[in-house]
Every structure is written in C-alpha cells, then in structure tokens.
Specification:
CATH class of the largest domain: Alpha Beta
Helix content: 40-55%
Largest sheet: 5 strands, mixed
Distance between the termini: 29 Å
Strand order of the largest sheet: 2-1-3-13-6
Radius of gyration: 21 Å
Length: about 450
C-alpha cells in the first residue's frame, strides 16, 4: 500500500443528448486472462463513455485506452461522448441534463470522493461490489482508497488514476533571469518571487491563470500552504472554523498572488495558461499534474512535446512540500445503462494493470493500483510515485474529494464574486455560511 488517504455549472445544457440504445445478439468475449479481462460475455454491440477528456495528455490517454478496449472487444462500437471544459465544468452540466431526462451514458466520469455521493444518493449509479471481487480490484486498490470511494459500505466507481493538484510549474530560464535560484517553500516566499519576476521582466506574467476553476484550484493550494495539511483537512469536518484568522491570512495571500495577474490576462482555459510558462510568457503556473501529460505528449496528440527539467520544471506548490493534495478520476456504471455488459468491459479496462499502465504515463498521473510497472513512470511521474508513498495526504476541494456538489457550488459562487470585488470579509463570510449550510 503506497500511502494513507486522510480526507477525503456554469453552463446550461443545450438540450438533452439523445442516446441510441441498441443492443446486439452478437457475443464478443474479451481475450486474455489477466485482471481486467474476465468480464464474461459482452452481449452489447455498443458502449457510450462520457468524460471531459478532450485535450492534451488526457485525450491522448483516453484514445490509448479506447484502442486497447477495441482490441479486446472488437465487436463493440465505442462512442466517445467527451465534453470539453477543464475539470468537467461543462461536462457536469450536460451530464446532469441527461440523467434528469433518463438518458444516461453507459459509464460516466466523476471525481472520487464526496462529488460522487450526489449521484449515489439519487440512485443514478450502480454498486460495484461484486464487480470488484470478480476483477480482483478489492486486492489491487489500497483499502484506504476503497474506503474513500465507498458510501455506506458499497463501492460505486473504478478509479483510473491518482492525480496531484498542488504542483508549481515554472520556466527555468525565466526564473533564473529574475535571480531566483530555487523553488519557493512558503507562500510568503512565493509572493516575493512573483515580485522579483515583475521587477526584472515587466513583459512576463509572474503567474498565469485560466478561467475561474483554475483560480479556485490556485486558492486551494494557497489555503493548504498557509494552513498545513491538518488545518486544511479540519475545514471539511463538522463544526469547522472557517472564520479562523489563518483562513483570513490565506485569503489575503491569494488576493495578493492574484494581483500579479490583471483580469485582462486571464487565459481562456488551463492549457493556454500552462502553455504561457512553456513559451516564456509566464514564470509560474499552479496546476495539477495533468499538465505534465500536456507538456510532454506529442504534438500529434495535442501536447507540446517538451522536455522535463529543460523546457519546464516543477515543485510542490508553495508551503505544501510533504503534502499530497490528491484526486482521482473514476468511472461509474450508470443506473439503466443501455449497454451494461460493454460498460463493465470498459470498467475492467480502466481498472486493469495494463489499462492503468497504458493510460497514466500519457495522462500525467500515477496509477490507483499498487502493482504498477514503475519503469513506465519517468520524469515528473517518477517523482510523483515517490511522493505519493511518503507525503501526508489531503483531499482536493475543487476536484471533488472533500466537498459535496452543493458545497462546491456555493464556494464557486463566493469566489466568483470575490474575483469581482476582492472583498476579503465578504468572501470569508460566504465560506462560513457555505460550510454551515452544506456540510454533511
């Protein structure tokens, strides 16, 4: 077991997407006997998988998984129903519309943890306890991870990976020109380094951000950097003190960091903001480690084909060295899935050792399983594997681990207002109110 897990929209759908529910009498039994291939007969001729993996390493990793799935299930037409929008900001709205219309995809992506509980409570996903035993996933995934993705003793999703949210990406040449010789180890040091970049290179953004979700991602890492792992985890428990002066300090630090990014320089999406670092237009960007997949994957697959430690470098987000802010992309079996046998074959692919070792090196994440082929994880991912095994772990807010959807949405709204008025007192009061109203 690699480690202990300690804690666990903005658009309207243009209309429910019609789902063609055709079945087939054709039987196509997956080949092979390794874990992930023993799903039994696949009696469906089609499967629809819903995700938000549409760009860079995530899209390339998904295509590699689809290719492997098709090899094992040659008679199944794979429908990739991915919806663009970083962190699922758009996809979740489309998915909600479909679920309300009783037109579910066969399997859909969600973040492991509290985010999935809304779907579970609404009866929109099937429990997977028997599936886990059949596939050996009850032994392949750490007990601590299975606990985090279970609800009332039942498990409802298959995690494809483990991501780290709290990563600081930077351009080595830009920071060196600013006289910065090492990555900042505290939030205060980071603010000082941002100022050095601003003073020495006025044509370079000290830090880049994208649309609103990327600023919430940044806020999360600043909060962890100032409060520490225990302080962050405590905020998501019943009776938490969101009015604490340490929270006030973290909000002020976030406001100061954001002052180095004029609103006119907010990028359209996370890829554009991250690419600014590669292009030397920005010194720093705080983003999850899916950025590593985007930076290093081929141009043909939508990546930038850059070299780690030369074109870009990384460190734990300021103040979070020794803390792993984790999240996991998981897939479900939708209640009423039109093609359940093909959907289970997809979940088997996602959960298998081969599937995880195919997908994660491309995506820029590490496997959820404990039996990975370490030789496949190089550069950033080698570092991430080591850190996962020794760091203190905290659950990501923005990426669904610690907050249910109602709580998440209330914080979304509070931060959206904060980005307009920069009123620290009002923002903190809104955070206090959200915790009181929405905490389970």
């Amino acid at each position: 077991m690699r480690g202990r897990l300690s804690a666990v929209v903005a658009i309207a759908a243009a209309g429910a997407l019609a789902l063609s529910a055709c079945s087939s009498s054709k039987s196509n039994k997956p080949s092979g006997t390794s874990p992930g291939n023993n799903t039994g007969a696949v009696t469906d001729s089609k499967v629809e998988v819903f995700s938000w993996w549409t760009g860079g390493g995530e899209a390339a990793g998904l295509q590699a998984l689809i290719a492997d799935y098709k090899k094992k299930n040659s008679g199944v037409d794979f429908v990739n129903a991915a919806v663009a929008g970083g962190a699922g900001t758009n996809a979740k709205a489309v998915l909600q519309s479909r679920l309300k219309a009783n037109q579910p995809p066969d399997s859909f992506q969600g973040h492991a943890g509290a985010e999935l509980q809304d779907y579970i409570k609404a009866g929109q996903v099937e429990p997977l306890d028997d599936f886990y035993q059949q596939q050996g996933l009850d032994k392949a995934f750490p007990q601590s991870l299975r606990d985090e993705i279970s609800y009332k003793g039942h498990i409802y999703s298959v995690p494809a990976n483990i991501h780290r949210a709290n990563v600081l990406w930077f351009n080595p040449q830009v920071v060196q020109k600013a006289g910065i010789t090492s990555a900042p180890t505290s939030v205060a040091d980071f603010i000082a380094d941002l100022d050095k970049v601003k003073q020495t290179q006025p044509d370079v953004q000290p830090i880049s951000v994208g649309d609103q979700w990327t600023t919430e991602h940044l806020w999360e890492t600043v909060m962890i950097g100032d409060l520490g792992a225990d302080g962050w985890n405590a905020l998501w428990k019943s009776g938490a003190n969101w009015g604490d002066p340490k929270v006030t300090q973290a909000i002020n630090d976030f406001k100061k960091i954001m002052s180095y990014v004029p609103s006119s320089q907010y990028a359209a999406d996370w890829q554009t903001a991250a690419k600014a670092v590669i292009d030397g237009k920005a010194a720093y960007n705080v983003m999850g480690d899916w950025a590593a997949g985007y930076f290093t994957s081929s141009v043909a697959s939508g990546g930038l084909a850059k070299t780690a430690k030369t074109d870009f470098d990384w460190a734990a987000a300021p103040g979070t060295d020794g803390v792993y802010d984790w999240l996991s992309d998981s897939f479900t079996l939708a209640k009423g899935a039109p093609h359940p046998s093909a959907a289970k074959a997809w979940l088997a692919e996602i959960g298998s050792k081969d599937g995880q070792d195919i997908f994660n090196p491309i995506k820029g994440s590490i496997p959820a399983r404990t039996d990975e082929d370490k030789s496949k994880y190089t550069g950033y991912l080698s570092w991430a594997l080591d850190e996962w095994g020794k760091d203190k772990l905290v659950g990501s807010f923005y990426h669904g681990v610690v907050a249910n959807n109602a709580w998440h949405n209330d914080i979304d709204n509070a931060e959206g207002q904060f980005l307009k008025d920069w009123n620290v007192d009002s923002f903190q009061k809104a955070l206090v109110n959200a915790a009181q109203q929405d905490a389970d």
